[in-house]
Inverse folding.
DNA sequence: ATCAGTCGTGCGTTATACGACCAAAAGTCA
DNA sequence: TGACTTTTGGTCGTATAACGCACGACTGAT
């Protein structure tokens, strides 16, 4: 794709390892306790292979088994922890999020694209606010119907974007969810032109989402955004401006540099 | 070890997958940008194998390459995110930590054992406090010289504990770091008897650490603790009591159930 | 230009994945 | 409750893919 460093990566990639990661990822918020057969069904792999891979995860301590059901252990947090530490996430990125969340007055989140979803990978924390709306790190949002998602699409690889626009599921979360894929494509083009995305009530009724890219048109793989009651925001411009400020600061950390 | 569910796991574990995970884990806070040779040296694997595994990670989007150096991408956060969501971490565990941190007046953290270290996997967040002392999720502490570590040892599998007591590195972080392994073993036994650990100035000068187990003697794989200036704490009992309260609440979430 | 270090590749050996089979448990219906 | 069907987990042999080693090319210093 954008791998210009080594000519290309053909098939000197380890399918076994890739499958293992896929097995690990079969566990998400809706599937936290799975049987071997369920994992096999979710990943499309052979049950025998899934069994070996799952037992490997158990052996390494990343999964536990209780009878026939497997689940992940907190040890998987270590996999992310090394990245967080190595990139000074807690000391450099998190404070930026917290600061702008205070300024804006609503929870600020960073998301990246994964499959057909935008996934929260970081979020501001505010002592008072308890929890915004149940969306936390790891939450998945539809790319097509949210501000974060459309911002990711606007700055994403055109080939990938085309595929998502054509094939990604498009459930009508609300009465106002855009159902016309061509219309969504035009909306994404507009987002690209504007440099920011505002989407109202297409995913959660009465909620408007705001998002800008972290980095420039070809360099951005992550987006930052917030959401607030639709009624709140007569003028989105101040919010967008703040988000751009935050994005600029985050770019300077280098954590979200292109990959 | 404690796998009584299936008789035992012998060699129906996938070494390729295990190696891939090890490669992923070669990236920590002190090694965030590595060459193939460095990864090979850190893991002890062949360079060719490391190359395939790294390219696999790049292909999957979990790593990037810049010339000859590889580094992880924020996508690795997704691996943890699914666990966090699936176990309602953000909505159930995190508030407990935050609440008790306010009560106690210092940052509260959860750690698990990994290799010869205790690793932070969760931490309270306090808007005001900015950052406690540079220790964030992913931080590694020596098992032998910290309260969190000795608590993990006190409730850990005896065989594993013996190995750690005998073989784990024991640098003298401060002038007061216990250097006699037998004395540390006795201290760990005392911790097991007490049900809590207090360690003063053995890791950071002027800082006392406090820790209790999350779960009972055989069921605890995680510990919760805090640290504060040595001068603060004439009487550790109230702090320990609070930590026990927090541990009880966290046990009820089931997130840290034995594995 | 030399030299040390690193990366990429081809081939023989080793180990993994796949599919089928069997046993056992779970679910179903009378 | 009983026997039935269905599903699940574990095992075994074989084709296939990955590993490890060695060699050659390249990069970047000194």
């Amino acid at each position: 794709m954008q791998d210009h460093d080594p000519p290309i990566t053909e098939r000197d990639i380890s399918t076994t390892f890739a499958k293992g990661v896929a097995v690990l990822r079969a566990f998400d918020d809706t599937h936290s306790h799975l049987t071997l057969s369920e994992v096999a069904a979710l990943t499309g792999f052979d049950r025998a292979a899934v069994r070996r891979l799952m037992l490997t995860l158990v052996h390494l301590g990343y999964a536990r088994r209780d009878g026939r059901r497997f689940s992940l252990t907190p040890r998987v947090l270590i996999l992310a922890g090394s990245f967080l530490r190595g990139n000074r996430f807690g000391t450099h990125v998190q404070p930026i999020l917290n600061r702008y969340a205070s300024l804006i007055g609503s929870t600020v989140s960073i998301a990246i694209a994964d499959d057909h979803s935008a996934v929260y990978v970081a979020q501001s924390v505010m002592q008072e606010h308890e929890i915004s709306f149940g969306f936390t790190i790891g939450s998945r949002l539809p790319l097509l119907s949210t501000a974060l998602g459309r911002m990711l699409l606007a700055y994403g690889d055109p080939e990938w974007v085309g595929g998502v626009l054509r094939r990604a599921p498009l459930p009508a979360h609300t009465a106002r969810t855009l159902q016309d894929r061509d219309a969504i494509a035009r909306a994404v083009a507009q987002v690209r032109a504007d440099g920011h995305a505002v989407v109202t009530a297409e995913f959660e009724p009465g909620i408007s989402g705001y998002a800008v890219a972290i980095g420039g048109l070809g360099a951005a793989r992550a987006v930052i955004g917030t959401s607030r009651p639709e009624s709140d925001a007569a003028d989105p411009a101040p919010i967008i401006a703040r988000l751009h400020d935050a994005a600029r600061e985050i770019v300077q950390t280098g954590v979200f540099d292109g990959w």
